[in-house]
Amino acid sequence: MNPRTLVVAGAFATQFTVIGALFSLGLYVKVFEVEFGWSRTMISGANALAFLMMGILAVGMGRLSDRFGPRRVLIVTGILFGIGLAALSQISAPWHFYAIMATFIAIGLGAHDVVTLSTIARWFDKRRGLMTAVAKVGTASGQMAFPLIVAVMIASIGWRETFVYLGVVAAVILIFGAMLMRNPGPDDVAANLQAHAAAGMDFTQARKSRTLWMLCIIQFSFFCTLMTMPMHLAAHGMDMGLSAAKAATLLSIVGGGSVAGRLVVGVLVDKIGCRNALSICLLLLVLALGGYTLAAGTISLFAVTLLYGFTHGALFVVISPTVAHFFGMKAHGQIFGTVLFFGTLGSAIGPIATGATFDILGSYSPAFIVLGGFAILALILARALPKTSQIGA
After folding, report:
1. Which residues pair with residue 328 across a beta bridge?
2. Which pLDDT tens digit goes with each residue over 175-229?
3. Is residue 162 part of a domain?
4. How many CA atoms lie within 13 A of 327 on its CB side?
5. How many structural domains is the chain composed of?
6. CATH code of the domain containing 332
7. CB burial of residue 180 (10 Å; 0-12, 13-18, 19+)
């Protein structure tokens, strides 16, 4: 089989598993409230810590992938991620939850995006946006499949047993996906892949560019929303009167909408450029967050969630090609990992601040307004990005 096809398939499997499992953790908010009496702020704090550690680890994972290749990195991190999921079945105190999320789960999160998308960027030039989108459809597929399956399993066998099965299945799929991944080698002559992979700025050059830091602020500003909504959306739906099954459907709608968002924006990146595609994504995010403050019934909530799902998926596609466009492939993993680190700072703040807002005010609406403000800031900065590549500037 064509090695490019195998790489995309491996990236798809990795994205499907890691983010699908992560999305399903949103179903545990109510479970942990009932089981342990934990507040949503406390529960959100564990996710926030995991995302913060993900960002710290992403820089190193990108550098390891640049140096040693994606396969070895993803095998090790996939095994550790599966162990972490299974270990969550044994928690009985907050520090158990925090420790596992900040180590095993964070390691899987830190590797899954930067390693897979950087590898795809090395294999593709003209269709980079579309192939990134195809890989990220794996994320959307996991978002649709995992919450529904996990909801059924929790109801039938209990939440602890569900975590054990989830961990085993995740490790198996992630090892399989890792075996399909590799960087272009001497025999991969099509499109001068090795020369393409070596072109561009190194990290020392990139960090002197204002464009890099603009991208970091943009990532911070919208990523707080992308990590907050999966954590709190199901609980928000149940607060509005939805059953647990219908609330799980909200997460699946996000996944379904994000499939369209990823594919449409993947094509747009290749057609109209990264800067314009990013601006469209951020405008839709602003509209979706505004819609959440107004949605008062089930139909409107589901409609706004579909719009949010579209932009949620799209924003996960556009950043890796944008980094490649501005800085090339020479140090793509490390540069992309740096941008992701700033995003995870936002993702660490967003979920816990949103949980605290609910605990204090009894409503998510103020948090949605603040998140919308950050999205507007990201949109303004996106329009201020240079219109041309920074390579050679």
Report:
1. 200
2. 999 999 988 876 664 545 555 555 678 888 888 899 999 999 999 999 988 878 8
3. yes
4. 30
5. 1
6. 1.20.1250.20
7. buried
Render 117-173 in DSSP notation, one character per residue. Answer: HHHHHHH-STTHHHHHHHHHHHHHHHHHHHHHHHHHHHHHH-HHHHHHHHHHHHHHH
Whether 391 is in a domain gets the answer no
Buried b (16+ CB within 10 A) or exposed e, 291-321: bbbebeeeeebbebbbbbbbbbbbbbbbbbb
Of 270, 21, 254, 331, nearest to 132 by C-alpha is 270
Residue type, 156: S
Question: Which residue shows structure tokens 């399956």?
Answer: 149
Task: Dig out the tokens for 307 from the structure.
Answer: 């719009």
Does the reported pTM lie above 0.85? no
Nearest to 136 by CA among 263, 25, 307: 263
pLDDT for 269 beyond 90: no
Element (H, E) at 114: helix 106-123
Does some domain include residue 392?
no
Alpha-carbon distance values, 23 to 143, 150, 259 (Å): 6, 10, 15
Asked if residue 338 is part of any domain, the answer here is yes
Cα atoms in the 13 Å half-sphere on the side-chain side of 332:
30
Which domain covers residue 231, as residue numbers? 3-182+192-384
pLDDT band at residue 390 using 50, 70 and 90 as cut-offs:
low
Structure tokens at 278: 């990013």
DSSP conformation class of 90: G
DSSP label of 328: B
Give me the residue label for tokens 């995740």: 170
Query: What is the residue type of 19?
Result: I
